[in-house]
Design brief:
three-stranded antiparallel sheet, 3 helices, single chain
């Protein structure tokens, strides 16, 4: 064993320290008296006096019974015709009816007068038609001759209503030339008075002769 290794014990120094004096006690604050709490005054509620309850006695219900009245059937309204008040009556005046004008009636021409007028008017038509006579050249070259009779229906003024060939010359060229002569002679002269009341018919012969 080695004793050299043993260390000497350390010396502990102990110092006495004075204990710190405690501070003086604090003086207590003066205690203030508690403030008075003002309590609100609560007024006692007065209960309303109960009103007396008056019970109404129910009045008796009286039902009025109305008599049933039968309504008569409504008749359809009749049309009322308003009548104008009649004017004051005046004494009727006698009026003399005017006499009808006397119409002048011309006496109808007799058949003799009509025949005479037709003959005269036929001659006048032939003289007017013959002025436009032209002999066709082909008929002259071939020596065709003949007579075409034309029937004319005229009105009271001398206007042609119809025309037709009642007798042919035998050659169409000559018949056609006769109708063209009638057309060229229009208008015809005024008919005589005996032929003016109605339509009439006149026959006009148109001869074709080589000289």
């Amino acid at each position: 064993m080695k004793f050299d290794d043993i260390k000497a014990p350390e010396v502990l120094e102990v110092q006495l320290v004075k204990k710190a004096e405690p501070p003086p006690p604090a003086q207590p604050e003066p205690i203030q008296p508690p403030a008075e709490v003002v309590k609100p005054q609560i007024k006692p509620k007065l209960k309303p006096e109960p009103k007396p309850i008056i019970k109404e006695t129910p009045s008796p219900i009286v039902q009025e019974v109305q008599p049933v009245v039968e309504t008569p059937p409504i008749a359809p309204q009749q049309e009322v015709i308003a009548v104008k008040p009649s004017p004051e009556r005046t004494l009727p005046t006698q009026t003399v009816p005017a006499a009808d004008p006397v119409k002048e009636t011309t006496p109808k021409p007799s058949q003799v007068d009509i025949d005479n007028a037709t003959g005269r008017y036929g001659n006048a038509l032939w003289s007017a038609i013959s002025k436009h006579k032209k002999y066709p050249k082909i008929a002259q070259m071939r020596g065709w001759q003949g007579e075409t009779i034309i029937e004319l229906e005229l009105d009271g003024t001398g206007k042609i209503k119809s025309k037709r060939i009642t007798q042919s010359s035998g050659y169409e060229v000559l018949d056609k030339q006769a109708l063209e002569m009638v057309e060229r002679a229009l208008p015809f002269p005024t008919p005589p008075e005996a032929l003016r009341n109605s339509n009439f018919t006149i026959t006009v012969p148109v001869p074709f002769k080589l000289e």
